[in-house]
Amino acid sequence: MNRALRALAAWVRRPVAAFTIGSFAVPLLLWCLVSYVPFVWHPMVRVQSAGAVDYFQPGMLVARADFDREAAEARSAGKPMPAGEAANPVYLPAPHEVLAALHTAFTSPPEQRDAPWLHESLWHSIRIIFWGFVISSLIGLPLGICAGAYPALGRLSEPFIEFFRYLPAPAFGALAVAVLGIYDAPKIAIIVIGTFFQQVLIIANTTRKLEATLVEAGRTLGARGWKLLRSVVLPGILPDLYRDQRILLGWAWTYLIVAELIGTSSGITFFITQQARYQHFDKVYAAIVIIGVIGFGSDLVLERLGRALFPWDRNGRKD
Amino acid sequence: MSRMNATPPLYLQQRPEVAERFQRLYQREVVLETRGLGKVYRGPNGDTEALRDIDLRVHRREFVCVIGPSGCGKSTLIRILAGLEKASSGQVLLDGAPVTGPGRDRGMVFQGYSLFPWLTVKRNVMFGPLMAGSSRTMAESRAREWLELVGLTKFADAFPHQLSGGMRQRVAIARALANEPRILLMDEPFGALDAQTRAKMQKHLLDIWRNVDITVLFITHDLDEAVTLADRILVLKAHPGEVQEVIEVPVPRPRSAEQCAGAEFMATKARLEQLIHPPNAQAAEEDEDDAAPMLRLTDVTDNIE
């Protein structure tokens, strides 16, 4: 623990760290500014006491123009004035509300009895992503590598894949439900459709970019066919392949929400739509933030892992 | 005719021991032979003839340099010999058998090192034997021997990116030799090195060549390098690449740095110079250079001469 803290302290002192922290601090600061400084935006008024306005209730949000009009009417009529404070719309909760929602979402049971906890929803979503990505990679990686390594196969497969990748994956939603049912299978299928075609093209391109002299060196040393592929091409592209997979995993995440709306809504999307329905926008934001944290965090971990796995790789170094 | 005219030019005069060495050399078997080798690149703007009618016989343990102006097809030649490109006409024979593709009987050292960056130095050298089906322990002990020969035992577990250019090229040589090829093909291997490292590597290569049963075909554009290293120098001329002359280098062996100032060395180099940069061609080239307009990018009064 002590060591980790010291490493963190050393990292914070680096000039790069200032920018990394800054790139998160600036948008957070903006959010705080909009949330906590009343005159910045605050187009609504939260009613504290209704006064003589019969449809006002304490805690109600009304547009500032309506509030001002009612207040003016009450004053001219000599009746008790309504009181309220400037507020933001319900869809823009303040940072501390989101933080609190984050906490309660993990610690207190969901409001409906059958609804899953946030962490259950998240875990469900992660499983969908995982299987979609794994299935796509199982076919896409070998196909991409072969299409890049053998020009004939590349020319045979790539035009069709190039065409197919322009078809929006969600368009296959109804078809996927018809074929695969309403539960997880069609969702995984959408992630696969969204990832696979890009994957083949990107991996093929990476394979083609391998330095030609490395392959030639391998051939003059007696490697050919499968041995050449396994001993020269594969290790040669591995660090770039790993980077591609990281980027593709990010893309898979972007298909998640659409995929989970197909059939019976599930996972984090179910959580988000449910909370939005009850206007619990703090919880909606909490869930969105969680997705970001998981995505960004896993990418950071994978990047570190990549550096450990490929110590010879000079392209991917930042320092 | 006077007797003076009968005397051959200095670069053709060989001391008795040098002449005798060539005699012995030509009696050894031919390792690599090309017969009427030609290469034509077909392009949208017509065909380009890179090589025409190259006949070459390299004897066992001979050191042959190929030299020529840029565009003479020397790289194409060595790539065809290595089997990385196909000849348009003619044949390459290794020990009398025609060559059809790359093989472990012809080791190749590239200019850009081309070491496998994901393998340690030792694993790079083990690559050839492993591909040939050697066991791991066999390949490893073989690699150790070759690393010792090139003096890199200490760096066996380093990655190529941790080595200097000269060291990387030594690994590349060890890697090629670990396959025990009949001939070592070297494509401007020291072209990317600085002058000092290059001189060291030349000496090192000659040491290796003296101690290992290996024939070397070495491509270079550096005249000094060719004269320093070669038994014979194959001079190509450009457009198309044809054999212009084959020079038997009269500088006796073992070679040393002091010989660079010797009469035989100078005469051979002068002859190469004459072949590769003929006086009239050079003049034409310089005229072209003069024709390029020079813009004045500084103040008219700001003169430095």
Folded structure, characterized:
The complex is a heterodimer of chains A (319) and B (305). Chain A has three domains: 1-41, no CATH class; 43-87, no CATH class; 107-309, MetI-like fold. The mean pLDDT of chain A is 89. Chain A is built from twelve helices and three strands. Chain A has a three-stranded antiparallel β-sheet with strand order 2-1-3. By secondary structure, chain A is mostly helical. The radius of gyration of chain A is 27 Å and the shape is elongated. Helix content of chain A is 71%, strand content 4%. With 305 residues, chain B is of the alpha/beta class. Chain B folds into two domains: 8-105 and 183-287, 3-Layer(aba) Sandwich (Rossmann fold), CATH 3.40.50; 112-180, no CATH class. Chain B has helices at residues 3-6, 16-27, 74-82, 121-131, 136-149, 165-177, 195-211, 223-229, 263-276, 279-291, and strands at 30-43, 46-59, 63-67, 89-94, 97-98, 106-109, 183-187, 215-219, 232-237, 242-248. Chain B has a six-stranded mixed β-sheet with strand order 6-7-8-3-9-10, with helices on both faces. In chain B, strand 7 (183-187), helix 7 and strand 8 (215-219) form a beta-alpha-beta unit. The radius of gyration of chain B is 22 Å and the shape is globular. The relative contact order of chain B is 0.16. The chains are: A mainly alpha (319), B alpha/beta (305). Chain A binds chain B through residues 211, 213-214, 216-224, 227, 231-232, 235-236, 238, 310-314, and chain B through 82-84, 101-104, 106-108, 110, 112, 114-119, 127-128, 130-132, 159-161, 175-176, 179, 185.
